[in-house]
Design a protein that fits this description.
It is built from 6 helices and no strands. The chain is mainly α and 145 residues long.
């Protein structure tokens, strides 16, 4: 049986990659300006989402009993992914003496550009993960002897 953390990690990773693909043209431009491979900027949101899902869905079969609990974790994963991606973009793009101001601008820009797709991905992944975790385990077939 697959652990809930692995299920959540795979679902959130796939949804995070789809969200990043929705704004890939902007991520590609930012990566080109920063001199970083563009696939890194496209893959990183999904990888961050996978990491945070793996951490937040530990022991989820015991802790998550309602779908709303999974959705709230999904929104937290989206927020953590947004902040982490903004930190990465700030590190790659901004001069060291302007880190604080640049981080604020990057947070705002990332929210405007990727907020909608990332929120939609988090909600879909939260619902899907919740359904997969909450559903009863399959019954073993009864064998007549």
């Amino acid at each position: 049986m697959i652990s809930p953390a692995v299920i959540a990690s795979l679902v959130f990773g796939a949804c995070g990659l789809l969200a990043a693909a929705a704004v890939e043209y902007i991520l590609r431009t930012v990566a080109d300006e920063a001199g970083i491979n563009r696939w890194i900027f496209v893959a990183v949101p999904g990888l961050f989402a996978m990491l945070f899902a793996m951490l937040l869905y530990q022991d989820a079969r015991r802790k998550i009993k309602r779908l709303g609990e999974s959705i709230s974790r999904g929104i937290l994963i989206a927020l953590l992914t947004w902040i982490s991606f903004s930190l990465l973009a700030t590190w790659a793009w901004c001069p060291p003496h302007q880190i604080g101001q640049c981080f604020g601008h990057t947070l705002l820009a990332a929210a405007i550009v990727g907020g909608g797709p990332m929120l939609a991905a988090a909600l879909v992944a939260g619902v899907l993960t919740g359904v997969l975790i909450i559903r009863p385990p399959p019954r073993k077939p009864v064998v007549d002897q």
